Structures are given as C-alpha cells and as structure tokens.
C-alpha cells in the first residue's frame, strides 16, 4: 500500500540524481529487421481479439523538462505489473541526448494494422518507439528490446533531415500503418507558418520517405489524424500554426477565432482531400480524433477544446450519410463559474473555468469514450454504444484550475488536471497524465505545475473510480503521452471485424 | 514439370499475402460470403497473366537463342533475384487500398506475382518440360507453347483451389485467430525457394 508513496519519492531522486545507466546513448548504424517466423504476438486481427490480450506490464511515458531547467526530455518506463516489487514506480529513465526537444506524442513502429491484407507485413516486430520532438523537429527511434525496462536510442533523425525530406516541421502524432509509419506535423519546413501535414517513415530503415499528401486542397492547419483503414479514409484535424502555440496560447488569436475549427476527410489510397467540414469558427481547436475500432463502422469522435461563445467544450461525432461525411455535436460540457481571484490572468475576465477538453480516447470495443477536462479537473466516461446519444456513466475529479483537487497518495492540492488518456486493451484500466504543452501549462497553471500520472479502474458495466494507491510523482518534470506495452486503445488499427 | 507447377500453385494458394486473405477480408467487410469467392477469380487471373507474360518472354527468347542459354540465363536471374529477396523478403509493392474492384484485384495480383518472381520461378520447370518435348518429339514450337500454357493453367487452377479451400476453412471453421499462430514467414521461405530452384536449374543446364 505504501509502495507507491515510496515510489514517488524515488522518482524525485531519480530526477535530481545522476543520469541512469541506460541514458548512455548507443547508436547502431544499420537496423536490420529480425526475421520473425510467426507474426508478432501483440498483433491481433480484430479489436475484439485484442481485448483478450494479457494486461500490460509496462508503460512508456513522455517526460519533458520545460525551457530554463536545462535538462533534456526523457522517456520513462513505469512498472504496471501489480505483482512486481517495483509496481507503480518509474523503473528507468532514458534521458535524450539533446535539450529542448519537447516530447509530446509518440507511437509504435508497427501494430495490428500489419495484418491488413492489402499490404501485409505480419513479421514486423512491435519493438521501436517513434518519438518526435514537437519543438525541435528531431525524431528518435527507441528500441524496447531485448529488455523492455531498458529502452535504447538506436537512431536519431536530425531536424535538418526531417525537414528537408518531409517538407514539414514540428512532428506530432505517430500512427503505425500497414505500409509505413505515418506522422503528422504542425508546420512547414523552415517556417513557423503552414501548411502542416503528414509524412511517412519507412517501416524498416526509419528513413523519411516524404510528404504523404498528393492533393491537399485548401487544408493548412494540422494536428491529429487517424483513419478508417478498411475504408481507405484518413481523417485529420486542426490545432494551429507553430507561431500560435510555441510561445503560448495567443489570446487575440483565440478571441479572433483563428485557431483550427475544421475537420478533413481524405482518400487514403489516392492521398487526396475529399471533404472538409467547418464546424463553426467559435469552436476553437478541433484536436483529438478517435475513429471506431470496428472496421465496418464509419463513425468517430472529435474533441473541441473551447467555444469562444460560451467557454464550453464539446465532442463531435462524424458519420456517413448520403455518401457524405457529417459532423454533429453530441456532448457539450459547460464552463464552471469562478471567482476572479482564483483564476490565472488569462481567464480573469471570464469569471469562469472552461472545461478545456484536451484529449479523448475510445475503448477497443467502441463502448466507452473518455474525455479529459484539463481546465475543470475532471475525467468523464461516456457510454457511446449509441454514438449519436452518449450517456455520462462516470466521472473522477483531480487537479483543476480552481479546485486543485488532491490525490490520497499525494500531499496537498494538485496542479494540472486530466490530460493525456490511455486505455488498456481490455478496457479495464485507464491511465492519464497532467501536462498539456510547456508554455500552455504555465499560462493555465502559473504556480509551478509538477508532473504526475494516475490510474482509474473501470467497472465493465460502466463507471470509473480513481485507484487510491496509484500515484506517480515526476517532480518538476512534466509528463505527457502514455504508451502501453503491446499496444493500447489509441495505437492499433484493425482491418478485420472480429 | 507438372508436379513442380502444382506444388508452386499450392504454395501461392496457401500464402495469405498472395490472395485468399484479401478475398476473405473483402467478404467479411461487405458481410457477403459471395464476395469472397468472386474476389478469388480476378486474383487468380492476375496471377496467371503475370506468369503468362514470363512464358511469352521465354518463348520469344527461344526463337533467337538456344534453349541452354535461356536455361542458364533464367537460372542466374533466379539466383540473383533470390539473393536480393533473401535480404529484402519483407518488402512488397505497395499499391492498393481496401476498397477494391475486380480490376484492382487483378492488377494487384499481377503486381504481387511479378514482383515476387512467380513467373520466373516456373521457367526452369517449363523449360525442363520443353527439353523433354525436344527429346521425344523433335522441335515444334506450337505444341511446345501449348504445353506451357496448359502447365500455367494447371498451376493457376491449383492455386485457385487451394486459396478457395483455405479461405473456406478459415471462414467456416478456424476463424481469423489462426492468422496469429499460423501465418508463417512465407516471404522468407519464398526467397530460399528461389535460391534452391535457381541452383538446381543452373546445375541441370550444365548436366549432360
């Protein structure tokens, strides 16, 4: 019971102490794929089969040290095996060799999509983490074998190379496709403006192949992307140009509705923009995209951070009707009134806390949607069995701009709030961290936010509760995306319907 | 010759990467068993066209150069290609998506068969057959060509039957979980097979 608290102290020590052994970087020149005789056991034909997978034993967590700390970012390995002596602790920290990368999202080199029949690569190995630096435009390839607790950098794509070959900068979302690794990027090469887009990495050599789009139409802003793989559809969303986020949220741009509010539907095969939908300029920052995992279905959910009309956040459903894509608001989360003195400068005038939905995640059975409210400090669970009519089935509170709600295993109030969510393959455990983006953290949580990771237990019939024993304190280091060993609910795509 | 044609047909039929899995997925996606069987036809046809293209090349070659030269040349080509595949067995042409019509499937199958040297693999067996034809009946271009096409037809028919059988068994009995346990590395086997057949063919072309 006290192990986690000890672990928390241990982490602080890890960060203030000497670099761990594994942070000595070894760079192997050539990456030769290992000849597997059978498919990687973590590849599953369908999402339903993947839900039978054994529980995850490790999480990889992107850790960032904000500017001024003079410390590099890191990938932390967290022990998630309840039977292990080091459960709920950071068992290793792989420090990166550069300072200021700003780790954010990352992903696996290969996943269940490798079984897709139109471009099968069943003997690839889920082994390498593709880790982009959102600020530096550098990309690290990190090997998690042979010892999953001791990942090592085996290749680094320097910013110059990434930009020259891809035409883009500020790499963000990584998805393992059946034929290549796809990465979205926020900016164009050599510039703080657009257009942002998507580029590809070779599955085997990890070299940049080039930009993905052949006909981009008028798409300019970029952020997240994912696909309906079995329907040749790629979907992309809009955040902002690098100049609109790197030095912090630009209030004038937000009030002027200059952040992204469109969603784009592409022909994945022809690499061509087919349809864009503008959901209304007041719906600022259309970010995370979570398509149904069932390849026969053609719907998904998109999160909108804030409405400039009423400060609400919203979840939108995309679906197909009359051969066209449609967007419909299915969840609205209202702001919470607050005293001016309790609010950071940015929000004082509004006398309310916006929910700020920064991340969403859909369980592998397409039943539960998790929604992180980074402003109000809440994690919501919705039953989306009927995607057109989500029902709120659970809620936990932690952190928050005003509430700063604590955790049984942490001392005092907590800054930050539910942000990046990850769901285990079986849907029984949900992990989340509290940092959004270094400069934005400081705007909404100006009192020196620290990094933490918590876990939520899921009732199979709906309902969530905070695991009172699971709290990992990362100290001044902030933590962002969590990736689970063997895959999770926002990694793998499936070409087979059970 | 006939046995080799049948065996290679069966091997292609078994390999999920060569067609049956694509057909099965399309059927599952469209909730129609009929789609599975209908999709197999263009896949088999595309494969046959790729092989026939090579046969035509060989027949054309035989008009200008002696049989032994063609044999040696194709054996060396097999060895070179096998050596390349041994180190690149995991690379495949990348072209289609999942929403495909018969034309797409035909072209996909043609590309896969061509890129993996399916036609080239059959050349030694075909030439062996034509060698026998020379010995017994004397040179006669037309029946020789007809024999080759018959062999290709047999090869394709075997492939189609095996594909259909495997797709049926997986669809009706085993379920897709079988992919996790039984999708062995056909690509690596193929690379080794190319090398073995190439070596045998080279040896035979020098044998008396």
Automatic annotation (TrEMBL), chain A:
Under catalytic activity, the entry for this protein gives: methanethiol + O2 + H2O = hydrogen sulfide + formaldehyde + H2O2 + H(+)
Give one GO molecular function term.
selenium binding
Catalytic activity, EC: 1.8.3.4
Its UniProt pathway annotation is: Organosulfur degradation
Give the family from UniProt: Belongs to the selenium-binding protein family.
Name this protein carries in UniProt: Methanethiol oxidase
Q: Which classification does the entry list for the species?
A: Bacteria, Pseudomonadati, Pseudomonadota, Gammaproteobacteria, Cellvibrionales
Automatic annotation (TrEMBL), chain B:
Which keywords label this protein?
A: Membrane, Transmembrane, Transmembrane helix
Query: Which protein, by its recorded name, is this?
Result: Uncharacterized protein
Keyword Transmembrane listed? The answer is yes
Q: Is the keyword Transmembrane in the record?
A: yes
Q: Which organism is it from?
A: Microbulbifer marinus
Q: Which domain of life is it from?
A: Bacteria
Q: Where are the transmembrane segments?
A: 6-28, 35-58, 64-84, 105-127, 147-171, 183-206
């Amino acid at each position: 019971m006290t192990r986690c608290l000890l672990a928390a102290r241990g982490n602080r020590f890890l960060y203030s102490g000497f670099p761990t052994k594994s942070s000595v970087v070894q760079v192997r020149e050539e990456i030769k794929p290992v000849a597997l005789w059978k498919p990687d056991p973590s590849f599953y034909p369908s999402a339903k089969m993947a839900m039978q997978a054994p529980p995850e034993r490790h999480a990889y967590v992107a850790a960032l040290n904000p500017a001024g700390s003079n410390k590099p970012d890191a990938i932390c390995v967290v022990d998630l095996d309840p039977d292990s002596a080091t459960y709920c602790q950071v068992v290793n920290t792989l420090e990166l060799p550069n300072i200021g990368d700003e780790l954010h999202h990352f992903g696996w080199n290969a996943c269940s999509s490798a079984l897709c029949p139109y471009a099968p690569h069943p003997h690839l190995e889920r082994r390498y983490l593709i880790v982009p630096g959102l600020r530096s435009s550098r990309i690290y390839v990190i090997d998690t074998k042979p010892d999953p607790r001791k990942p090592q950098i085996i290749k680094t794509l320097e910013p110059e190379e990434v930009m020259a070959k891809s035409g883009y900068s500020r790499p963000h979302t990584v998805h393992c496709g059946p034929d290549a690794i796809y990465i979205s990027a926020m900016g164009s090469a050599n510039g703080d403006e657009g257009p942002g887009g998507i580029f590809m990495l070779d599955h085997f050599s990890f070299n940049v192949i080039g930009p993905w789009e052949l006909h981009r139409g008028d798409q300019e802003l970029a952020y997240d992307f994912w696909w309906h793989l079995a329907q040749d559809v790629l979907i992309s969303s809009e955040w902002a140009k690098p100049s609109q986020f790197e030095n912090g949220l630009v209030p004038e741009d937000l009030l002027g509705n200059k952040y992204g509010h469109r969603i784009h539907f592409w022909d994945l095969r022809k690499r061509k923009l087919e349809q864009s939908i503008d959901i209304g300029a007041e719906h600022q920052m259309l970010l995370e995209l979570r398509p149904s995992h069932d390849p026969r279905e053609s719907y998904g959910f998109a999160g909108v951070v804030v409405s400039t009309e009423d400060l609400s956040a919203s979840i939108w459903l995309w679906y197909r009707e009359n051969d066209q894509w449609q967007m419909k608001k299915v969840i609205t989360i209202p702001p919470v009134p607050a005293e001016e003195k309790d609010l950071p400068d940015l929000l004082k005038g509004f006398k309310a806390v916006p929910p700020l939905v920064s991340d969403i995640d859909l369980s592998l059975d397409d039943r539960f949607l998790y929604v992180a409210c980074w402003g109000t400090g809440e994690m919501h669970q919705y039953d989306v069995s009927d995607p057109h009519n989500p029902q709120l089935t659970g809620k936990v509170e932690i952190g928050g701009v005003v509430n700063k709600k604590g955790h049984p295993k942490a001392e005092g109030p907590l800054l930050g709030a539910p942000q990046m969510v990850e769901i285990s393959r079986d849907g029984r455990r949900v992990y989340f961290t509290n940092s959004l983006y270094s400069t934005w953290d400081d705007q909404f949580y100006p009192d020196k936010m620290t990094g933490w990771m918590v876990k939520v237990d899921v009732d199979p019939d709906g309902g969530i509760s905070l695991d009172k024993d699971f709290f990992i304190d990362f100290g001044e280091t902030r933590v962002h995306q969590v990736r689970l060993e063997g895959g999770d609910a926002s990694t793998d795509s499936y070409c087979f319907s059970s | 010759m006939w046995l080799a044609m049948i065996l290679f047909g069966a091997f292609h039929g078994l390999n999920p990467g060569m067609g049956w899995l694509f057909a099965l997925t399309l059927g599952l996606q469209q909730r129609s068993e009929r789609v599975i069987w209908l999709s197999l036809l263009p896949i088999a046809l595309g494969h046959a066209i790729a092989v026939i293209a090579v046969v035509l090349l060989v027949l054309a070659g035989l008009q200008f150069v002696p049989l032994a030269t063609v044999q040696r040349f194709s054996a060396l080509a097999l060895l070179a290609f096998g050596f390349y595949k041994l180190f690149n067995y995991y690379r495949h042409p990348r072209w289609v998506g999942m929403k495909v019509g018969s034309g797409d499937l035909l072209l996909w199958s043609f590309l896969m068969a061509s890129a993996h040297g399916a036609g080239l693999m059959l050349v030694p067996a075909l030439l062996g057959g034509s060698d026998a034809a020379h010995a017994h009946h004397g040179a006669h271009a037309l029946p020789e060509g007809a024999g080759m096409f018959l062999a290709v037809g047999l090869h394709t028919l075997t492939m189609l039957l095996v594909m259909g059988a495997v797709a049926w068994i997986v669809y009706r009995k085993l379920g897709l979980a079988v992919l996790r346990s039984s999708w062995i590395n056909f690509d690596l086997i193929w690379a080794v097979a190319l090398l073995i057949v190439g070596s045998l063919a080279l040896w035979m072309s020098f044998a008396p």
